[in-house]
Every structure is written in structure tokens, then in C-alpha cells.
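Case study 2.
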Amino acid sequence: MPPQSLMNPPTTPPPSHPSTSLPSPQLPEKYFSRNAFERLMTLIATLVRFPGVGYLEKDKTEDSHHNALEEVHRYVLETAEQQGITLKKCTPHSLHKDLKTLRTYGILDERMYRWGYFLGTGALSQEDVAKVLNVLHSQAQYQRDTQIKQLYERLAKRLKGAAAKETLFYPVRAQWNRSIIETDPIERMSHGSGPRSLFDAIEIVEAAILNGQALELCRRANPYGDKVQSRFQVWPLQLLHYDIAWYLIHQDCDNKHLAISRIDRLSDECFVSKDQRRSLDEQRRSLQQAHSLLENGWGLFLGKPQDQSQELRGKLEPVEIRVRFYPRVMAFIAEGALRHPTQELEEGPIDPTTRRPAFVDYLVKLPKRSVSEFSLWVHRFMGNAQVISPGWLVQEHLEAASRQVAYYTSNLDT
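Prediction:
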């Protein structure tokens, strides 16, 4: 006997709708038999339990043809066995017809499922959902992403009765890069913490990114003190969380200059341009250029317009930097094999006492725009790092060290 969880097959066709409404698809007579009905129900259960079935066992390196229906067939039989159902006349051919029936009723979309079958938006397995919940929890709690927080809370309610609830919501992984300012407008208002910012208009920014719309933004704070426009028109490209804050990657509408601005330093005065629009492909190409600059550089400063243009064309010579790290920190430096695509590590001579290298030299090629942010990273290892070249950077670090000594000396004297 089949389990109670499966409904009995219908004995009569569903009633027809009045002539004034569109005709609904009629359940084929073959599904009036118990075996055909149970096969159809088991197929649906299989698509729910194994999203992506048909491609799950595909070896990307194999040259031979992969028969998706044969894989679906194996998983359907496995599901039937787990449910205590005996399927007769279940073949890849009969399942092919069942899949067509699911399309007729809108359970499957009218499209090619080249990477496996799944129902609606249910493209994740339970294990996948647990990993996604980890990411959502981290981004909601530590990066203070308001929309993700709301999404996480909705999912938590929907999955409240899940059998694996405890393991689904345990934060196995977390990303401890915390935003240092309040990003939720409602929380900010309740605590009275800080003025309004672009976070109060973040939905407008996200819509503009996807619709290829230009925005007029207003800068409300500039701690660097340099001369920048208070109002400027840009193509918004991406919201980016880096270290302690959320940023907006954008491109100037006039000169195509790419830059990154911290969101809380921008005002909520955000105006959508009705005249300037471009395709999502153009948006994506500009974003790829910005990511290329980020990868080649160090930090978030993408350079001034003229230098940036030369760098994107490959005509800007990088600065070759050598920094020497001493024993207390050199093991940590050696661990970072992927800090930068151009980096090299060179070990110094072996110390006969410790039988370890006396130092490790870190070599990297950076655009000049990134040297200041790279220097801030070197400063973290104060007392255990020494800039070796180029000469002008050695002088800058020497002067910075001298100022530090002067600060401590003056305090000791008082």
C-alpha cells in the first residue's frame, strides 16, 4: 500500500469551467490509473528532493553524451523505494511524457533545463539552503544589510517547522567584517544615531543599477578634505561591502571615470535621470573594468581620470615595491599566497641560531594610486617591517617613523 502522504488518484476528470473562462488543461486519462498517478507524484517528489536532477552526476570533463532522463529515472526509482512505492512501467520514455505534463500545468517552465530540473524557485537542496542561510545571517548581522535582514527573518518564519531547523539555522560560517555605522534607517531613527544618508534611498540606487539609469548624487561628508564636487551624475554599478563599511562603485556620466564612494558619506538626495539610460551589458562591462582596477591595485582608490584611462589601456607603468618583514611576522606574510596577483616572496639567508630565514622580502607591483593604501597595510607591522625600495617610498616611511618617535618622546618628556 502506498503511504498516506500520497493522494488517491482522481476517478473522474476535473469539472470543466464555464464557457466564459479560458479552458484549463485536462488531466490525461492515463493518470487515472494508480501506477501512472504515483509515477507522476514520485517524479514531483524527486524534483523537490533533488533540485538539479538530470545534471547532478554530469562529469564536466567527460566527452561522452550524458542522458539526463536516465539520471532522472534512477533518482525517481530511489525516491519510490524510500517512500515504499512500487512503480511499474517506469522508464525514461514514460518520464519524458510526465515532464511534458508538468509543463502543461505550469509546474515546470516552458524552457530548456540544461543544468537539471527543479520546481519554480526551488533550485536549492536542504544542504544548499543551510549554506545560503549562513551567508544571509552573516550579511544581515555583521554587514548590517537591511534587506537581507528582512529576507532572513521571512525565511526563518517559513522554515520554522522544518525537521532540520536546528541545523539549518546554526551559523557554521560567518564573515566578521562589521559595518561601523548604522545602515538601517528605522534603527537609526529609533536610536538617534547619525544623519540621513544614501541608505535611506538604497532601493532607488539598486533599481537604477539594474535599469541602467543615471543618478545625481550629493556628497554630504568628505573627511579627506580634497576638492570634490558636492553634486555629481554617475552610473551606479554595484554596492560593495569592504572591511568596515558599504560603498558604491560608480562611473561618471561625462568622462567615464570609475570611482568608489562610501554610502554613508552620500546624502539621501538622490535623483534619477529620465534622459540617461544604458543597457545592462554596458553596466556589466563598466563593472568588470572597476573590478580589474580593484584586482590590480591595493584598497579602494581607483585613481584619477587620466591615470585610470592609461591603466585600463595597459600603458601605465606600475611601481615595484620591496618590503622586508622580520621573524616575528614573516610567517604570517608567507601564509598569504593570494594577497596580490603580482606578488613574490624571497627568503633571506638562514640564521644559524634559529635555522630560519633572517627575513622575508615581499615584492609587489602596484599602480602608484595604490601606494598610500599599501603603506597603511605595512604600518600594521610596525617595528617588524622595513621598506627597501623604491627610494622615495623608503623616505616617506622613514619620515612617518620619525614623527611617531617624536610623538612618543614628547609625551615621555611631559
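The chain is about 40% helix and 15% strand.
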